[in-house]
Amino acid sequence: MSKNTAAIETRQVFFTYPDGHAVLKSVTCSIKPGEKVALIGPNGAGKSTFMSLLNGVSLPTHGQVHIDGTLVEKESLVNIRRKVGIVFQDPDDQLFCPTVYDDVAFGPLNLGLAHEEVDKRVKESLALVGLEGFDERSSYHLSFGERKRLALATVLSYRPEILVFDEPSTNMDPLNRRKLINWLKESDKTILLCTHDLDIALEVCDRCILLTDGEIVADDTASKILHNRQLLEENNLELPLALMTHELLNDILKNKDDLDEDHRFIIGNFLHAHRHAHGADGEIHFHVHTHDDHSPAHTHHNHTHEHEHEHEHEHEHEHHEDGSDKDQRQQNKQ
Q: The pTM is what?
C-alpha cells in the first residue's frame, strides 16, 4: 500500500435502500495508511452501511469509494476483498468449518495458495490472536471471547492491509477485551473501529469520525471528540466511562469538605494517573508509582516514567524526623 495514497477514501457517497430510505448522505472522508480511526454514532447513524461499502458488500447509490486508490466496483471486488478484512460483531457469522484450523485456512485456500503457505499462515494467525494449539478444536466449542479472536484470525490469514471491526468488544469479558485492545494498539495495519464502546475508541484510536443520520458531523482527533461532552450528548452519546469516572472523582475531591486526608490522597493519586492515561492533548502518558509501604502515610517513591514525549513533574516533599519522605497531599486538594 502506497503511503501517498489514502487507504480508504469516500467521495460524496450516498446510499439509499430500495424503499427510498436514505442511509448515507454525501459522506466524504479519507483515512491514511496505518491510521487507527473510530467510526462512532448513535443507532441508525449508518455505520454498518458505511462499513459494507468498503469491500463491496454494498455499492453506493451515488459517489465513489476508493481502497488504496482502486475504485470499489463489481470489476474490482476480488482485489478489494484481499485488501479489506471485515470482522463482524457476531463471530459465528464467520465461523462455519468443523475445526479451528479449517476456519482459518478457508481464506488462504480460496486465494489458491500452496498447502505449505496455507499452513504457515494458519499458524501465524492463530499465534497473533493467542490461540496456538487450538488447531484441531471445534470452533463452536470455544468461548465467545475465543471465537471473537478466531474470527479475527480468519481475516488475518489472508493478510489484508485494512481491518474493519464491527463492535469489536461486544459481549467480551474483561480479560479478552484487554487482549483485543493490546493487539489493536500494537498492530501496524490500517484499522477502522465501528463501535459504541467509546472507551476502546479513546484508548486505541488516533482519530474519530462521528456519524449521525447518515452525515459526518465531526471528524477530529479522538481526544478532542471524546472529551467533548456537549457534542456527544447532542448526538445521543455519552462520555467514555473512564472520563465520567474522572469527572465524578474530581467533583468529590473538590466538593466534599468532610473527606478525610487518606481518601483525598487515594483519589488524588488516581486522578493524577488517569490524566496521564487520557490527557486532553491526545498523547498517551504512563506514570507508574511504586511504594515501599502500601499505607498512604509512607510515600517513599520509586518512579517509573514511560512517555511518548517529555514533560516534567514537580513533587514537593516533607522531610520527617524519622528520615522518611512524604508527598505534600495538599496538592491533591487543588
A: 0.74
